[in-house]
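Morning!

As promised:
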Amino acid sequence: MPSKRPVIEITDLVKSYRRGGQSIPVLENICLKIEEGEFLALMGPSGSGKSTLLNLIAGLDQADSGSIRVGDREITVLSESELARWRAGHVGFIFQFYNLIPVLTAFENVELPLMLTRLSKKARKSHVATALSLVSLSDRMDHYPRQLSGGQQQRVAIARAVVTDPTLLVADEPTGDLDRHSADEVLQLMDQLCTELGKTIVMVTHDPRAARKSHTLKYLEKGVLTDAPQIAAPECL
Amino acid sequence: MLLKLLLRNAFRHRLRTLLTIGGIAVAILAFGLLRTVITAWYAGVAASSANRLVTRNAISLIFPLPLSYKEKIRAVDGVSIVSYGNWFGGVYIEEKNFFANFAVEPISYFDLYPEFLLSDDERAAFFRERKACVAGQKLAKRFGWKIGDTIILRGTIFPGNWEFILHAIYQGKDKTIDENQFFFHWEYLNETLRKTIARRADQVGFYMIGVKRPDQAAATAEAVDGLFKNSYAETLTETEKAFQMSFVSMSEAIITVILLVSYVIIVIIMAVVANTMAMSVRERMGEYAVFKTLGFGSGYLAGLILGESLTLTAVGGLLGIGATFPAAAAFGQAVGQFFPIFHVSAETIWMDMAAAAIVGVAAAVIPIWRVVHVRIADGLGRIG
Protein backbone atom coordinates (compact mmCIF):
# COMPACT_ATOMS: atom_id res chain seq x y z
CA MET A 1 0.00 0.00 0.00
CA PRO A 2 1.26 3.49 -0.74
CA SER A 3 2.60 4.94 2.46
CA LYS A 4 4.74 7.51 4.10
CA ARG A 5 7.38 9.19 1.93
CA PRO A 6 8.51 9.02 -1.70
CA VAL A 7 11.38 6.58 -2.08
CA ILE A 8 11.81 7.52 -5.74
CA GLU A 9 11.45 11.06 -6.99
CA ILE A 10 11.89 11.77 -10.67
CA THR A 11 11.90 15.33 -11.96
CA ASP A 12 12.01 16.56 -15.57
CA LEU A 13 13.69 13.43 -16.83
CA VAL A 14 14.74 13.52 -20.48
CA LYS A 15 16.28 10.70 -22.45
CA SER A 16 16.96 10.29 -26.15
CA TYR A 17 18.96 7.87 -28.25
CA ARG A 18 21.12 8.60 -31.23
CA ARG A 19 20.47 6.45 -34.28
CA GLY A 20 22.26 7.11 -37.56
CA GLY A 21 23.24 10.60 -36.48
CA GLN A 22 19.67 11.46 -35.48
CA SER A 23 18.46 12.09 -31.97
CA ILE A 24 15.32 10.11 -31.14
CA PRO A 25 13.53 11.36 -28.03
CA VAL A 26 12.38 8.53 -25.78
CA LEU A 27 11.37 10.23 -22.55
CA GLU A 28 10.25 13.84 -22.31
CA ASN A 29 10.16 15.70 -19.03
CA ILE A 30 9.04 12.77 -16.94
CA CYS A 31 8.03 13.55 -13.39
CA LEU A 32 7.10 10.77 -10.99
CA LYS A 33 7.02 10.02 -7.29
CA ILE A 34 6.94 6.48 -5.97
CA GLU A 35 6.37 5.97 -2.29
CA GLU A 36 7.99 3.43 -0.05
CA GLY A 37 6.25 0.05 -0.25
CA GLU A 38 4.39 1.03 -3.41
CA PHE A 39 3.81 -1.44 -6.24
CA LEU A 40 3.80 0.59 -9.43
CA ALA A 41 3.01 -0.81 -12.86
CA LEU A 42 4.11 0.93 -16.03
CA MET A 43 2.15 0.15 -19.14
CA GLY A 44 2.29 1.40 -22.66
CA PRO A 45 2.80 0.31 -26.24
CA SER A 46 6.10 -1.10 -27.49
CA GLY A 47 8.70 1.62 -27.96
CA SER A 48 6.94 3.98 -25.60
CA GLY A 49 9.98 4.19 -23.31
CA LYS A 50 8.82 1.95 -20.43
CA SER A 51 11.98 -0.13 -20.24
CA THR A 52 14.12 2.96 -20.71
CA LEU A 53 12.42 4.59 -17.74
CA LEU A 54 12.86 1.40 -15.73
CA ASN A 55 16.56 1.27 -16.68
CA LEU A 56 17.03 4.86 -15.57
CA ILE A 57 15.27 4.28 -12.25
CA ALA A 58 17.42 1.18 -11.68
CA GLY A 59 20.64 2.99 -12.56
CA LEU A 60 21.30 0.90 -15.66
CA ASP A 61 21.38 3.85 -18.03
CA GLN A 62 22.21 7.55 -17.94
CA ALA A 63 19.63 10.29 -18.48
CA ASP A 64 20.25 13.29 -20.77
CA SER A 65 18.89 15.64 -18.12
CA GLY A 66 16.65 15.71 -15.09
CA SER A 67 16.88 14.20 -11.67
CA ILE A 68 16.28 10.77 -10.18
CA ARG A 69 16.45 10.59 -6.43
CA VAL A 70 16.21 7.15 -4.86
CA GLY A 71 16.09 7.32 -1.10
CA ASP A 72 18.60 9.99 -0.20
CA ARG A 73 20.71 9.46 -3.30
CA GLU A 74 20.69 11.49 -6.52
CA ILE A 75 21.68 8.73 -8.91
CA THR A 76 22.02 10.78 -12.11
CA VAL A 77 25.30 12.21 -10.87
CA LEU A 78 26.88 8.86 -10.05
CA SER A 79 29.68 7.43 -12.17
CA GLU A 80 29.39 3.98 -13.75
CA SER A 81 31.30 2.30 -10.95
CA GLU A 82 29.36 4.20 -8.27
CA LEU A 83 26.13 3.18 -9.96
CA ALA A 84 27.28 -0.45 -10.03
CA ARG A 85 27.95 -0.35 -6.27
CA TRP A 86 24.66 1.41 -5.66
CA ARG A 87 22.70 -1.14 -7.69
CA ALA A 88 24.38 -4.01 -5.85
CA GLY A 89 23.17 -2.65 -2.53
CA HIS A 90 19.80 -1.14 -3.34
CA VAL A 91 18.14 -2.71 -6.37
CA GLY A 92 16.85 -6.16 -7.14
CA PHE A 93 16.14 -7.10 -10.77
CA ILE A 94 13.51 -9.40 -12.27
CA PHE A 95 13.69 -9.88 -16.04
CA GLN A 96 11.21 -11.19 -18.58
CA PHE A 97 13.47 -14.09 -19.59
CA TYR A 98 14.70 -14.70 -16.01
CA ASN A 99 18.34 -14.17 -17.06
CA LEU A 100 19.71 -16.83 -14.78
CA ILE A 101 23.29 -17.95 -15.42
CA PRO A 102 22.87 -21.37 -17.05
CA VAL A 103 26.10 -22.87 -15.71
CA LEU A 104 25.19 -22.07 -12.11
CA THR A 105 22.69 -23.94 -9.95
CA ALA A 106 19.65 -22.23 -8.47
CA PHE A 107 21.60 -21.86 -5.22
CA GLU A 108 24.62 -20.35 -6.97
CA ASN A 109 22.46 -18.00 -9.02
CA VAL A 110 20.83 -16.67 -5.89
CA GLU A 111 24.20 -16.44 -4.16
CA LEU A 112 25.65 -14.36 -6.99
CA PRO A 113 24.67 -10.86 -5.70
CA LEU A 114 26.00 -11.81 -2.26
CA MET A 115 29.45 -12.32 -3.75
CA LEU A 116 29.73 -8.54 -3.78
CA THR A 117 29.13 -8.32 -0.05
CA ARG A 118 31.46 -9.04 2.84
CA LEU A 119 29.27 -11.87 4.12
CA SER A 120 30.95 -15.10 5.13
CA LYS A 121 30.24 -18.28 3.22
CA LYS A 122 28.04 -19.50 6.07
CA ALA A 123 26.07 -16.26 6.17
CA ARG A 124 25.66 -16.33 2.39
CA LYS A 125 24.37 -19.87 2.59
CA SER A 126 21.83 -18.86 5.21
CA HIS A 127 20.64 -15.85 3.15
CA VAL A 128 20.28 -17.98 0.01
CA ALA A 129 18.36 -20.65 1.90
CA THR A 130 15.96 -18.01 3.24
CA ALA A 131 15.45 -16.47 -0.19
CA LEU A 132 14.83 -19.83 -1.83
CA SER A 133 12.43 -20.82 0.91
CA LEU A 134 10.56 -17.53 0.35
CA VAL A 135 9.92 -18.58 -3.25
CA SER A 136 9.23 -22.20 -2.17
CA LEU A 137 12.17 -23.65 -4.08
CA SER A 138 14.35 -24.96 -1.25
CA ASP A 139 14.13 -28.42 -2.73
CA ARG A 140 15.42 -27.23 -6.12
CA MET A 141 18.54 -25.43 -4.99
CA ASP A 142 20.90 -27.86 -6.73
CA HIS A 143 19.05 -27.75 -10.02
CA TYR A 144 20.40 -25.92 -13.01
CA PRO A 145 18.07 -23.46 -14.78
CA ARG A 146 17.55 -25.90 -17.68
CA GLN A 147 16.15 -28.39 -15.14
CA LEU A 148 13.49 -25.92 -13.95
CA SER A 149 10.23 -24.78 -15.52
CA GLY A 150 9.78 -21.16 -16.62
CA GLY A 151 7.81 -20.31 -13.51
CA GLN A 152 10.40 -21.91 -11.25
CA GLN A 153 13.20 -20.06 -13.03
CA GLN A 154 11.36 -16.78 -12.51
CA ARG A 155 10.97 -17.61 -8.83
CA VAL A 156 14.71 -18.27 -8.60
CA ALA A 157 15.23 -14.89 -10.28
CA ILE A 158 12.97 -13.31 -7.65
CA ALA A 159 14.97 -15.00 -4.90
CA ARG A 160 18.16 -13.58 -6.49
CA ALA A 161 16.50 -10.14 -6.60
CA VAL A 162 15.58 -10.12 -2.91
CA VAL A 163 18.54 -11.98 -1.40
CA THR A 164 20.46 -8.75 -0.68
CA ASP A 165 17.32 -7.21 0.85
CA PRO A 166 17.24 -4.26 -1.58
CA THR A 167 15.08 -1.16 -1.17
CA LEU A 168 13.75 -1.35 -4.67
CA LEU A 169 12.70 -4.17 -6.98
CA VAL A 170 12.45 -3.50 -10.70
CA ALA A 171 10.70 -6.01 -12.92
CA ASP A 172 10.64 -5.90 -16.70
CA GLU A 173 7.73 -7.94 -18.04
CA PRO A 174 8.12 -10.53 -15.26
CA THR A 175 5.17 -12.59 -16.54
CA GLY A 176 5.81 -12.03 -20.23
CA ASP A 177 7.28 -15.48 -20.80
CA LEU A 178 5.06 -17.45 -18.44
CA ASP A 179 1.82 -19.41 -18.72
CA ARG A 180 -1.16 -18.11 -16.81
CA HIS A 181 -0.67 -20.35 -13.78
CA SER A 182 3.02 -19.53 -13.39
CA ALA A 183 2.31 -15.86 -14.01
CA ASP A 184 -0.24 -15.87 -11.19
CA GLU A 185 2.28 -17.48 -8.86
CA VAL A 186 4.92 -14.90 -9.70
CA LEU A 187 2.49 -12.00 -9.29
CA GLN A 188 1.31 -13.42 -6.00
CA LEU A 189 4.90 -13.58 -4.86
CA MET A 190 5.59 -10.00 -5.90
CA ASP A 191 2.47 -8.83 -4.11
CA GLN A 192 3.65 -10.67 -1.01
CA LEU A 193 7.09 -9.00 -1.25
CA CYS A 194 5.39 -5.64 -1.38
CA THR A 195 2.72 -6.08 1.26
CA GLU A 196 4.55 -8.32 3.73
CA LEU A 197 8.16 -7.24 3.31
CA GLY A 198 7.50 -3.63 2.34
CA LYS A 199 9.49 -3.74 -0.88
CA THR A 200 8.96 -0.95 -3.38
CA ILE A 201 8.32 -2.47 -6.80
CA VAL A 202 8.38 -0.87 -10.23
CA MET A 203 7.12 -3.20 -12.91
CA VAL A 204 6.89 -2.79 -16.66
CA THR A 205 4.17 -4.93 -18.18
CA HIS A 206 1.93 -5.42 -21.17
CA ASP A 207 -0.27 -7.79 -19.22
CA PRO A 208 -3.41 -6.11 -17.81
CA ARG A 209 -3.78 -8.93 -15.27
CA ALA A 210 -0.33 -8.22 -13.97
CA ALA A 211 -1.08 -4.50 -13.91
CA ARG A 212 -4.19 -5.14 -11.83
CA LYS A 213 -2.00 -6.59 -9.06
CA SER A 214 -0.21 -3.25 -8.72
CA HIS A 215 -1.23 -0.42 -6.41
CA THR A 216 -0.56 2.30 -8.92
CA LEU A 217 -0.81 2.18 -12.68
CA LYS A 218 0.94 4.58 -15.03
CA TYR A 219 0.84 4.74 -18.79
CA LEU A 220 3.67 5.82 -20.96
CA GLU A 221 3.06 6.78 -24.55
CA LYS A 222 5.52 8.46 -26.89
CA GLY A 223 7.71 9.32 -23.96
CA VAL A 224 4.99 11.02 -21.95
CA LEU A 225 3.79 9.61 -18.63
CA THR A 226 0.10 9.69 -17.78
CA ASP A 227 -2.24 8.22 -15.20
CA ALA A 228 -4.72 6.97 -17.75
CA PRO A 229 -4.55 5.77 -21.34
CA GLN A 230 -5.46 9.27 -22.50
CA ILE A 231 -2.85 12.04 -22.29
CA ALA A 232 -2.90 13.83 -18.99
CA ALA A 233 -0.94 16.66 -17.49
CA PRO A 234 2.50 15.72 -16.09
CA GLU A 235 2.16 14.58 -12.52
CA CYS A 236 4.53 17.07 -10.98
CA LEU A 237 2.78 20.10 -12.38
CA MET B 1 32.88 -18.70 -7.52
CA LEU B 2 35.01 -16.90 -10.15
CA LEU B 3 37.11 -20.02 -10.69
CA LYS B 4 34.06 -22.28 -10.77
CA LEU B 5 32.31 -20.01 -13.21
CA LEU B 6 35.22 -19.58 -15.59
CA LEU B 7 35.89 -23.32 -15.65
CA ARG B 8 32.24 -24.10 -16.35
CA ASN B 9 32.15 -21.43 -19.04
CA ALA B 10 35.33 -22.78 -20.62
CA PHE B 11 33.80 -26.22 -21.05
CA ARG B 12 30.28 -25.11 -21.88
CA HIS B 13 30.50 -25.96 -25.58
CA ARG B 14 32.51 -29.13 -25.26
CA LEU B 15 33.11 -29.77 -28.94
CA ARG B 16 34.20 -26.21 -29.61
CA THR B 17 36.39 -26.22 -26.52
CA LEU B 18 37.96 -29.58 -27.38
CA LEU B 19 38.67 -28.48 -30.94
CA THR B 20 40.21 -25.24 -29.71
CA ILE B 21 42.31 -27.03 -27.11
CA GLY B 22 43.36 -29.54 -29.77
CA GLY B 23 44.37 -26.68 -32.05
CA ILE B 24 46.40 -25.03 -29.29
CA ALA B 25 48.07 -28.34 -28.42
CA VAL B 26 49.07 -28.96 -32.06
CA ALA B 27 50.29 -25.38 -32.44
CA ILE B 28 52.37 -25.54 -29.26
CA LEU B 29 53.72 -28.94 -30.34
CA ALA B 30 54.69 -27.55 -33.75
CA PHE B 31 56.18 -24.42 -32.15
CA GLY B 32 58.15 -26.54 -29.67
CA LEU B 33 59.45 -28.86 -32.39
CA LEU B 34 60.53 -25.98 -34.61
CA ARG B 35 62.27 -24.30 -31.66
CA THR B 36 63.97 -27.63 -30.93
CA VAL B 37 65.16 -27.83 -34.54
CA ILE B 38 66.67 -24.36 -34.19
CA THR B 39 68.26 -25.33 -30.87
CA ALA B 40 69.66 -28.45 -32.56
CA TRP B 41 71.10 -26.28 -35.29
CA TYR B 42 72.94 -24.24 -32.73
CA ALA B 43 73.96 -27.27 -30.64
CA GLY B 44 77.58 -27.09 -31.80
CA VAL B 45 77.71 -23.41 -30.94
CA ALA B 46 76.11 -23.99 -27.56
CA ALA B 47 78.61 -26.74 -26.73
CA SER B 48 81.59 -24.57 -27.68
CA SER B 49 84.08 -23.60 -25.04
CA ALA B 50 85.40 -20.09 -24.58
CA ASN B 51 88.78 -21.68 -23.82
CA ARG B 52 89.22 -23.15 -27.28
CA LEU B 53 90.37 -21.63 -30.57
CA VAL B 54 90.30 -23.21 -33.99
CA THR B 55 93.02 -22.48 -36.52
CA ARG B 56 92.48 -23.38 -40.17
CA ASN B 57 93.81 -22.41 -43.55
CA ALA B 58 92.82 -18.80 -44.26
CA ILE B 59 91.71 -19.68 -47.80
CA SER B 60 89.32 -22.46 -46.85
CA LEU B 61 88.84 -25.31 -44.46
CA ILE B 62 89.54 -27.79 -47.24
CA PHE B 63 93.14 -26.60 -47.60
CA PRO B 64 95.57 -28.17 -45.11
CA LEU B 65 98.15 -26.60 -42.82
CA PRO B 66 101.67 -27.92 -42.21
CA LEU B 67 102.21 -30.02 -39.10
CA SER B 68 105.24 -27.87 -38.43
CA TYR B 69 102.99 -25.00 -37.29
CA LYS B 70 102.24 -26.92 -34.10
CA GLU B 71 105.38 -25.97 -32.18
CA LYS B 72 105.21 -22.37 -33.32
CA ILE B 73 101.63 -22.08 -32.11
CA ARG B 74 102.50 -23.71 -28.82
CA ALA B 75 105.09 -20.98 -28.26
CA VAL B 76 102.50 -18.20 -28.55
CA ASP B 77 101.83 -16.39 -25.29
CA GLY B 78 98.53 -17.46 -23.74
CA VAL B 79 98.40 -20.88 -25.42
CA SER B 80 98.12 -23.77 -22.97
CA ILE B 81 97.70 -26.74 -25.26
CA VAL B 82 97.70 -27.45 -28.99
CA SER B 83 96.01 -30.33 -30.70
CA TYR B 84 95.29 -31.02 -34.33
CA GLY B 85 93.35 -33.23 -36.62
CA ASN B 86 91.68 -33.85 -39.93
CA TRP B 87 88.13 -34.26 -41.03
CA PHE B 88 88.32 -37.84 -42.28
CA GLY B 89 84.99 -38.13 -44.07
CA GLY B 90 84.88 -41.94 -43.89
CA VAL B 91 81.76 -43.91 -44.78
CA TYR B 92 80.59 -46.84 -42.69
CA ILE B 93 79.20 -49.53 -45.05
CA GLU B 94 77.07 -47.09 -47.05
CA GLU B 95 76.63 -43.35 -47.52
CA LYS B 96 73.39 -43.09 -45.56
CA ASN B 97 75.24 -44.11 -42.37
CA PHE B 98 76.72 -40.67 -42.06
CA PHE B 99 78.50 -39.57 -38.88
CA ALA B 100 81.31 -37.15 -38.13
CA ASN B 101 84.73 -38.84 -37.98
CA PHE B 102 88.03 -37.21 -37.25
CA ALA B 103 91.68 -38.19 -37.13
CA VAL B 104 93.06 -36.39 -34.06
CA GLU B 105 96.13 -36.28 -31.89
CA PRO B 106 94.42 -38.23 -29.11
CA ILE B 107 96.09 -37.15 -25.88
CA SER B 108 95.97 -33.39 -26.45
CA TYR B 109 92.55 -33.56 -28.11
CA PHE B 110 90.88 -35.35 -25.22
CA ASP B 111 92.65 -32.99 -22.81
CA LEU B 112 90.99 -30.15 -24.69
CA TYR B 113 87.59 -31.83 -24.52
CA PRO B 114 86.99 -32.84 -20.90
CA GLU B 115 83.28 -32.99 -21.72
CA PHE B 116 83.92 -36.30 -23.52
CA LEU B 117 83.88 -38.70 -20.59
CA LEU B 118 86.02 -41.85 -20.81
CA SER B 119 86.96 -44.35 -18.15
CA ASP B 120 90.66 -44.44 -17.31
CA ASP B 121 91.00 -47.94 -18.71
CA GLU B 122 89.34 -47.05 -21.97
CA ARG B 123 91.36 -43.86 -22.26
CA ALA B 124 94.61 -45.75 -21.73
CA ALA B 125 93.60 -48.45 -24.21
CA PHE B 126 92.71 -45.84 -26.83
CA PHE B 127 95.96 -43.95 -26.39
CA ARG B 128 98.07 -47.11 -26.51
CA GLU B 129 96.88 -48.71 -29.72
CA ARG B 130 97.61 -46.94 -33.05
CA LYS B 131 94.52 -48.36 -34.76
CA ALA B 132 92.28 -47.66 -31.81
CA CYS B 133 89.21 -45.52 -32.13
CA VAL B 134 86.63 -43.91 -29.85
CA ALA B 135 82.94 -43.63 -30.65
CA GLY B 136 80.22 -41.68 -28.94
CA GLN B 137 77.68 -43.64 -26.94
CA LYS B 138 74.78 -42.88 -29.31
CA LEU B 139 76.86 -43.78 -32.34
CA ALA B 140 77.92 -47.10 -30.83
CA LYS B 141 74.32 -47.84 -29.94
CA ARG B 142 73.15 -46.89 -33.43
CA PHE B 143 75.39 -49.50 -35.08
CA GLY B 144 75.50 -51.98 -32.20
CA TRP B 145 79.25 -51.56 -31.71
CA LYS B 146 80.96 -53.03 -28.66
CA ILE B 147 84.43 -52.59 -27.24
CA GLY B 148 86.84 -54.72 -29.25
CA ASP B 149 84.81 -54.60 -32.46
CA THR B 150 86.63 -53.97 -35.70
CA ILE B 151 85.15 -51.09 -37.65
CA ILE B 152 85.99 -50.44 -41.26
CA LEU B 153 85.47 -47.01 -42.81
CA ARG B 154 85.76 -46.37 -46.51
CA GLY B 155 87.75 -43.21 -47.07
CA THR B 156 86.32 -40.56 -49.34
CA ILE B 157 88.96 -37.86 -48.81
CA PHE B 158 91.67 -40.41 -48.02
CA PRO B 159 91.06 -43.39 -50.31
CA GLY B 160 91.04 -46.97 -49.14
CA ASN B 161 89.40 -49.10 -46.50
CA TRP B 162 90.54 -48.08 -43.03
CA GLU B 163 90.35 -50.56 -40.23
CA PHE B 164 89.89 -49.49 -36.62
CA ILE B 165 89.41 -51.30 -33.33
CA LEU B 166 86.91 -49.80 -30.93
CA HIS B 167 88.71 -49.32 -27.63
CA ALA B 168 86.51 -46.72 -25.98
CA ILE B 169 83.00 -45.34 -25.97
CA TYR B 170 82.62 -41.82 -24.64
CA GLN B 171 79.66 -40.26 -22.92
CA GLY B 172 78.79 -36.60 -23.03
CA LYS B 173 79.07 -34.65 -19.80
CA ASP B 174 75.50 -33.46 -20.37
CA LYS B 175 72.73 -33.53 -22.96
CA THR B 176 74.31 -30.79 -25.05
CA ILE B 177 77.36 -32.91 -25.92
CA ASP B 178 77.30 -34.70 -29.25
CA GLU B 179 77.63 -38.47 -28.72
CA ASN B 180 77.61 -39.28 -32.41
CA GLN B 181 81.27 -38.60 -33.20
CA PHE B 182 84.11 -40.93 -34.04
CA PHE B 183 87.81 -40.29 -33.36
CA PHE B 184 90.98 -42.17 -34.20
CA HIS B 185 94.74 -41.54 -34.13
CA TRP B 186 95.96 -38.89 -36.54
CA GLU B 187 99.29 -40.72 -36.59
CA TYR B 188 97.60 -43.78 -38.11
CA LEU B 189 96.30 -41.62 -40.94
CA ASN B 190 99.61 -39.86 -41.42
CA GLU B 191 101.69 -43.03 -41.47
CA THR B 192 99.43 -44.57 -44.08
CA LEU B 193 99.57 -41.41 -46.16
CA ARG B 194 103.36 -41.40 -46.03
CA LYS B 195 103.29 -44.81 -47.67
CA THR B 196 100.49 -44.18 -50.15
CA ILE B 197 100.23 -40.43 -50.95
CA ALA B 198 103.37 -38.93 -49.48
CA ARG B 199 102.60 -35.40 -50.65
CA ARG B 200 99.57 -35.34 -48.34
CA ALA B 201 101.49 -36.50 -45.26
CA ASP B 202 102.41 -34.22 -42.34
CA GLN B 203 99.53 -31.90 -43.02
CA VAL B 204 96.59 -31.21 -40.76
CA GLY B 205 93.12 -29.91 -41.44
CA PHE B 206 92.89 -27.80 -38.28
CA TYR B 207 94.56 -26.96 -35.03
CA MET B 208 92.62 -26.85 -31.82
CA ILE B 209 94.19 -24.46 -29.33
CA GLY B 210 93.52 -24.29 -25.63
CA VAL B 211 93.98 -20.79 -24.20
CA LYS B 212 94.91 -19.97 -20.63
CA ARG B 213 92.47 -17.07 -20.32
CA PRO B 214 89.28 -16.79 -22.36
CA ASP B 215 89.38 -12.98 -22.12
CA GLN B 216 92.64 -13.03 -24.07
CA ALA B 217 91.37 -15.39 -26.77
CA ALA B 218 91.13 -12.62 -29.38
CA ALA B 219 94.69 -11.46 -28.77
CA THR B 220 95.96 -15.04 -28.87
CA ALA B 221 94.13 -15.68 -32.15
CA GLU B 222 95.65 -12.54 -33.61
CA ALA B 223 99.11 -13.57 -32.45
CA VAL B 224 98.74 -17.03 -34.02
CA ASP B 225 97.63 -15.61 -37.37
CA GLY B 226 100.43 -13.05 -37.20
CA LEU B 227 102.98 -15.85 -37.07
CA PHE B 228 102.01 -17.13 -40.49
CA LYS B 229 101.25 -13.89 -42.25
CA ASN B 230 102.60 -13.88 -45.81
CA SER B 231 103.49 -17.58 -45.57
CA TYR B 232 102.29 -19.99 -48.26
CA ALA B 233 99.62 -21.25 -45.83
CA GLU B 234 98.20 -18.31 -43.93
CA THR B 235 95.92 -19.15 -41.02
CA LEU B 236 92.58 -17.99 -39.77
CA THR B 237 92.13 -18.42 -36.03
CA GLU B 238 88.81 -17.87 -34.33
CA THR B 239 87.01 -18.99 -31.22
CA GLU B 240 85.37 -22.37 -31.39
CA LYS B 241 82.01 -20.61 -31.10
CA ALA B 242 82.74 -18.39 -34.10
CA PHE B 243 84.02 -21.41 -36.00
CA GLN B 244 80.77 -23.31 -35.30
CA MET B 245 78.72 -20.21 -36.09
CA SER B 246 80.32 -20.04 -39.54
CA PHE B 247 78.67 -23.40 -40.30
CA VAL B 248 75.35 -22.32 -38.85
CA SER B 249 75.38 -19.04 -40.76
CA MET B 250 75.53 -21.00 -44.02
CA SER B 251 71.98 -22.10 -43.23
CA GLU B 252 70.85 -18.80 -41.77
CA ALA B 253 68.11 -18.32 -44.35
CA ILE B 254 66.61 -21.71 -43.48
CA ILE B 255 66.81 -20.96 -39.77
CA THR B 256 65.13 -17.59 -40.32
CA VAL B 257 62.33 -19.28 -42.25
CA ILE B 258 61.86 -21.89 -39.49
CA LEU B 259 61.80 -19.10 -36.92
CA LEU B 260 59.22 -17.15 -38.91
CA VAL B 261 57.05 -20.24 -39.40
CA SER B 262 57.15 -20.89 -35.66
CA TYR B 263 55.88 -17.34 -35.01
CA VAL B 264 53.26 -17.61 -37.75
CA ILE B 265 51.90 -20.75 -36.07
CA ILE B 266 51.48 -18.79 -32.85
CA VAL B 267 49.76 -15.92 -34.65
CA ILE B 268 47.39 -18.37 -36.37
CA ILE B 269 46.45 -20.10 -33.14
CA MET B 270 46.05 -16.69 -31.52
CA ALA B 271 43.46 -15.87 -34.18
CA VAL B 272 41.72 -19.21 -33.62
CA VAL B 273 41.52 -18.77 -29.84
CA ALA B 274 40.50 -15.12 -30.24
CA ASN B 275 37.70 -16.25 -32.54
CA THR B 276 36.57 -18.88 -30.03
CA MET B 277 36.58 -16.35 -27.22
CA ALA B 278 34.81 -13.74 -29.35
CA MET B 279 32.07 -16.25 -30.24
CA SER B 280 31.67 -17.39 -26.64
CA VAL B 281 31.51 -13.86 -25.30
CA ARG B 282 29.11 -12.71 -28.03
CA GLU B 283 26.78 -15.60 -27.16
CA ARG B 284 26.96 -14.71 -23.48
CA MET B 285 26.75 -10.96 -23.80
CA GLY B 286 23.34 -11.06 -22.08
CA GLU B 287 24.85 -12.92 -19.13
CA TYR B 288 27.66 -10.41 -18.80
CA ALA B 289 25.04 -7.68 -18.88
CA VAL B 290 23.27 -9.47 -16.01
CA PHE B 291 26.54 -9.49 -14.06
CA LYS B 292 26.92 -5.77 -14.69
CA THR B 293 23.28 -5.22 -13.69
CA LEU B 294 23.88 -7.00 -10.40
CA GLY B 295 26.81 -4.68 -9.72
CA PHE B 296 29.83 -6.73 -10.82
CA GLY B 297 32.54 -4.43 -12.08
CA SER B 298 34.66 -4.51 -15.19
CA GLY B 299 37.57 -6.10 -13.32
CA TYR B 300 35.50 -9.12 -12.35
CA LEU B 301 34.18 -9.60 -15.88
CA ALA B 302 37.67 -9.14 -17.35
CA GLY B 303 38.95 -11.75 -14.90
CA LEU B 304 36.17 -14.11 -15.96
CA ILE B 305 36.99 -13.79 -19.67
CA LEU B 306 40.77 -13.73 -19.25
CA GLY B 307 40.58 -16.73 -16.92
CA GLU B 308 38.53 -18.67 -19.44
CA SER B 309 40.93 -17.82 -22.26
CA LEU B 310 43.95 -18.74 -20.15
CA THR B 311 42.28 -21.99 -19.08
CA LEU B 312 41.93 -23.00 -22.73
CA THR B 313 45.49 -22.07 -23.62
CA ALA B 314 46.91 -23.60 -20.43
CA VAL B 315 45.23 -26.95 -21.06
CA GLY B 316 46.15 -26.88 -24.76
CA GLY B 317 49.65 -25.66 -23.95
CA LEU B 318 50.27 -28.40 -21.40
CA LEU B 319 49.02 -31.06 -23.79
CA GLY B 320 51.23 -29.61 -26.52
CA ILE B 321 54.27 -29.50 -24.25
CA GLY B 322 53.57 -33.04 -23.08
CA ALA B 323 53.39 -34.22 -26.68
CA THR B 324 56.59 -32.38 -27.64
CA PHE B 325 58.84 -34.82 -25.77
CA PRO B 326 57.81 -38.06 -27.52
CA ALA B 327 57.47 -36.19 -30.82
CA ALA B 328 60.97 -34.72 -30.45
CA ALA B 329 62.36 -38.14 -29.51
CA ALA B 330 60.82 -39.69 -32.64
CA PHE B 331 61.90 -36.75 -34.79
CA GLY B 332 65.40 -36.85 -33.33
CA GLN B 333 65.68 -40.54 -34.11
CA ALA B 334 64.58 -39.96 -37.68
CA VAL B 335 67.00 -37.10 -38.32
CA GLY B 336 69.74 -38.09 -35.87
CA GLN B 337 72.46 -38.05 -38.51
CA PHE B 338 71.75 -34.38 -39.30
CA PHE B 339 70.97 -33.26 -35.77
CA PRO B 340 73.12 -35.26 -33.36
CA ILE B 341 71.84 -33.18 -30.44
CA PHE B 342 68.05 -33.10 -30.56
CA HIS B 343 66.42 -32.64 -27.22
CA VAL B 344 63.72 -30.32 -25.92
CA SER B 345 65.52 -27.67 -23.91
CA ALA B 346 64.20 -25.95 -20.80
CA GLU B 347 64.26 -22.71 -22.79
CA THR B 348 61.92 -24.25 -25.38
CA ILE B 349 59.49 -25.26 -22.63
CA TRP B 350 59.57 -21.75 -21.20
CA MET B 351 58.94 -20.34 -24.69
CA ASP B 352 56.03 -22.77 -25.16
CA MET B 353 54.50 -21.61 -21.88
CA ALA B 354 55.09 -17.97 -22.74
CA ALA B 355 53.52 -18.47 -26.17
CA ALA B 356 50.46 -20.15 -24.61
CA ALA B 357 50.14 -17.33 -22.07
CA ILE B 358 50.51 -14.63 -24.73
CA VAL B 359 47.89 -16.33 -26.90
CA GLY B 360 45.56 -16.56 -23.87
CA VAL B 361 45.94 -12.90 -22.99
CA ALA B 362 45.81 -11.61 -26.58
CA ALA B 363 42.70 -13.67 -27.38
CA ALA B 364 40.88 -12.16 -24.41
CA VAL B 365 41.66 -8.51 -25.13
CA ILE B 366 38.92 -7.73 -27.67
CA PRO B 367 36.17 -9.74 -25.91
CA ILE B 368 37.04 -7.97 -22.63
CA TRP B 369 36.94 -4.59 -24.34
CA ARG B 370 33.51 -5.40 -25.79
CA VAL B 371 32.06 -6.60 -22.50
CA VAL B 372 33.44 -3.68 -20.54
CA HIS B 373 32.10 -1.15 -23.04
CA VAL B 374 28.70 -2.65 -23.81
CA ARG B 375 25.79 -0.68 -22.38
CA ILE B 376 23.81 -2.82 -19.96
CA ALA B 377 20.57 -2.10 -21.78
CA ASP B 378 22.14 -3.18 -25.08
CA GLY B 379 23.60 -6.26 -23.45
CA LEU B 380 20.23 -7.25 -22.08
CA GLY B 381 18.79 -6.59 -25.50
CA ARG B 382 16.02 -4.39 -24.35
CA ILE B 383 15.49 -0.80 -25.36
CA GLY B 384 11.94 0.39 -25.79
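The interface with chain B takes residues 17, 46-52, 55, 58, 60-61, 81, 84-89, 93, 95-96, 99, 101-104, 108, 111-113, 115-116, 172 of chain A (CB under 8 Å).

Hope this helps with the figure draft.
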